[in-house]
Structures are given as structure tokens and as C-alpha cells.
Design brief:
alpha+beta, five-stranded antiparallel sheet, four-stranded mixed sheet
């Protein structure tokens, strides 16, 4: 009890807080599952769920894209995604986020990113989703190489 007085010979254990629950990020070479992202933010308190799915398109900056290659140092990307989620959930009370991002070689139509956001009301869910993608484009060290009809182009991290 907080009122107990320690006596000589007593032992005190300091246990650090443990984060529980399901992971809030996934960075993988595998195909992304939007339904799994939705399940990650589902709860009885949620009245609005937004799903953002980013796919590889066949053009960029006036060039025909044949495929993309994403490079990522996974531990750093996971940590930065967690930072983004924590900040948004603090700024938009009641919001919940799950973010999944692929790396490796992706072809036209492949899903590269999934963001699931949820809250009691739609405004917060929409805001959280939009804020997440905007921050990811600037703050997450994922590097993208576009393979196009005119050659390969690295699209740098920071500014989307």
C-alpha cells in the first residue's frame, strides 16, 4: 500500500510500464491486408472507421511507371510510425490508428500503405487518417525508387 512504511530489509521492485495490446504498426515485405488493419482499430466505442489504401499507380511526374522498389530500415520505420501514431492520438483525443507499409518490389496495383483510423465520430477519424499520411510522407525514412520507361528515379524521404 502507498501508506506502508519500509523497514530495514524490505525489498522494493520497480517494474517499468509494459505496453499491452496489439501492435499498431506493420512494416513488411508481405502483401498488406486492409481488413486486418480495420480489425486493429475496431472496438465497441468506435462509430467511425476510415481506411486509406495507397496503391502503386502506372504513372508519376509525366512518366510511365513499371514498378516501385521501397527500401526501409524496418526498426527505424516502425519507431517513427509509432511516434506519429502517438502524436496524432494525443492531438485528436479518442482517435485510434493502425499503419501498415510495405517495402521491397511492388508492381502496378499493389498496396503500398494502409492506414486505418477510428474514433467515436467521423471528423476525428478523417482528420487522424489525413494527418497520418501527410506526416508519413515527410517524417518516415522509407525510400522509393520508381522504375519508369525513361529509367530509374529515387524519390527521397521528406516531402512526399
Amino acid at each position: 500500500k502507498p501508506t506502508d512504511v519500509l523497514q530495514d530489509g524490505d525489498e522494493v521492485a520497480l517494474i517499468p510500464p509494459v505496453q499491452g495490446g496489439a501492435p499498431r504498426v506493420l512494416v513488411t515485405l508481405d502483401t498488406l491486408d486492409p481488413a486486418a488493419a480495420l480489425r486493429a482499430v475496431s472496438s465497441p466505442e468506435v462509430g467511425a472507421t476510415i481506411l486509406f489504401v495507397g496503391t502503386v499507380r502506372n504513372h508519376s511526374r509525366g512518366k510511365d511507371v513499371t514498378k516501385l522498389e521501397y527500401e526501409a530500415y524496418v526498426p527505424m520505420v516502425e519507431k517513427q510510425l509509432e511516434v506519429i501514431i502517438g502524436a496524432i492520438e494525443e492531438e485528436i483525443p479518442g482517435s485510434q490508428l493502425f499503419i501498415a507499409h510495405r517495402y521491397g518490389e511492388l508492381t502496378i496495383g499493389d498496396i503500398s500503405i494502409v492506414i486505418a483510423s477510428a474514433s467515436a465520430h467521423r471528423d476525428e477519424a478523417y482528420r487522424a487518417s489525413r494527418e497520418a499520411i501527410e506526416r508519413i510522407k515527410v517524417d518516415v525514412p522509407i525510400f522509393k525508387k520508381e522504375l519508369t520507361s525513361d529509367g530509374d528515379t529515387w524519390v527521397g524521404w521528406g516531402g512526399g
